[in-house]
Amino acid sequence: MTTFVIIVLCLYFVPAIIALVRNHHNKIPIIALNILLGWSVLGWVAALIWSLMAGHPKTVVVRTSDLP
User: How far apart, in whole angstroms, are the C-alpha atoms of residue 9 and residue 3?
Assistant: First the structure.
């Protein structure tokens, strides 16, 4: 019984775990959505999709003073 509960909890928090591992810029709202609405299938799927979405694009800074 204990193993079953642990497996179910791990599956329930998959979106939060993905957001934490990927260091998603919206990890706190994703975790909140997962905790508050994860019990509904729609809330869990929304949190999962959100956690898998790409974050901010990488910014490249070019200093013009270094150019010839």
Answer: 10
Summarised one tens digit per residue, pLDDT across range 28-56 is 999 999 999 999 999 999 999 999 997 66
Residue 45's Cβ-side half-sphere holds a number of Cα atoms within 13 Å equal to 3
Q: At what angle do helices 41-52 and 27-37 cross, to 10 degrees?
A: 160
- C-beta of residue 34 within 8 angstroms of C-beta of residue 15: yes
What is the DSSP code (8-state) at residue 57? P
Quote the DSSP letter at residue 34.
H
User: Which strand (E) or helix (H) includes residue 52?
Assistant: helix 41-52
